[in-house]
Amino acid sequence: MTEKYAVVVVGGGAAGLSAALVLGRARHRTLVIDAGEPRNAPAAHMQGYLTRDGMPPAEFLAIGREEIARYGVELVRDRVVDVTRGEDLTEGQGEDFTGAQSDGFTVVLAGGRTVRARRLVVATGLKDELPAVAGVAERFGRDVLHCPFCHGWEVRDQPFGVLATTPASVHQALMVSQWSKDVRFFLHTVAEEELSDEDLRRLAAAGVEVVPGEVAGLVTENDRLTGVRLADGSEHARSVLFLAPRAVPQTGLLEGLGAELHETPFGAYPVVDATGLTSVPGAWAAGNAIGFAEQVVHAASGGYRAATAIVGDLLMTDLDAVAQV
Q: Does CATH number 3.50.50.60 belong to domain 3-127+246-324?
């Protein structure tokens, strides 16, 4: 028989584990399905999370998995390949609630298992697509970085490079100047005339040197970044390179359910309310599944908000069903 849950959480990162913790503590049978591909896996540490500043992401997730297990939450290593909506389900919380039903979800896993849930939390995050520059992928999360708030303090006052991928990369070059006064902005595939006069004035005011020419690769020594090499063969000594990966939202499951999306400069994300509820009744989203800029602390908060909303939603649904009997 197909197993039934109150809630299935797709994604075992900060958002998914946070939601599962709240749901487990609220005595709802909850299943977390985790493919084991966290966005911050390349990073050695995470920063800016009060009381967890500097903790390795893998350790953070391991503690989270231990915590949800205390409350009976199940976690499986698998990938969801399909979700459909429309099956009437009963959670079975006791004789007072045996008649309570709501439109639920059927969730199919890659390993062949099929489960059903009354409510769904999608916390599938996004993937970072890196520029095709030799050496970037190998060093990403080490001395090739994307977020100054995540890593700026640790690399402060070192010679920075910023790789332009679009004219909007000017913003990143300006931001990182908070952490170093030695910043070179490599235009790479962006033509200098694509920068506005305001961009150039601000870069000059921040002391950021603009370097035209395409970047061919990185220079390393003893497994450390030492420079950036241009296509003309010239090299610029740098020990840190910032760039902006192209965000690829993992919205396939929500799209398959017919969720409304809205376009942003960083991709299309689901339209959600303040709790993360999507346009699909019964389906919530949290973490990087709702936006590019959700840091770990935001993702955990979003999962918490979604879970508390679901607990209330299920309760009112069940009470209304009993009242109508």
A: yes
